[in-house]
UniProtKB/TrEMBL annotation:
Domain of life: Eukaryota
Name this polypeptide is given: WW domain-containing protein
Domain WW: 57-90
Source organism phylogeny: Eukaryota, Viridiplantae, Streptophyta, Embryophyta, Tracheophyta
Source species of the chain: Arabidopsis lyrata subsp. lyrata
Family annotation (PROSITE patterns): WW_DOMAIN_1, WW_DOMAIN_2
Pfam families linked: WW
């Protein structure tokens, strides 16, 4: 079985959203500032490697799935430059 090809690193891709967005309300508000400080410390010592995930034809346009070495996979709207962890709803 052949291994899936990995996309090359692309430092120009957008950063993943704050990890606090994964928490339910009101905890996401409480940890939002802590998350920003954590990112500063973590990324300063270990920069994120960002790359495109394998093509997913079921994603609606203009969304792309990205992968980061420091977080989960995340989604990027190439028109609005919005990033999020939740998979965007299909347009069908």
């Amino acid at each position: 079985m052949a291994a899936a090809a990995t996309a090359p690193e692309d430092p120009n891709l957008p950063e993943p959203p704050c990890m606090s967005t994964l928490l339910p309300y009101p905890y996401n508000l409480r940890f939002q500032n802590l998350d920003v400080e954590y990112k500063k410390l973590f990324y300063a010592s270990q920069p994120a490697v960002k790359r495109y995930a394998p093509e997913d034809p079921s994603l609606p346009e203009p969304w792309k799935r990205l992968e980061s070495s420091n977080t989960y996979s995340y989604y990027w709207n190439t028109e609005t430059n919005v990033t999020q962890y939740e998979r965007p709803p299909s347009s069908s």
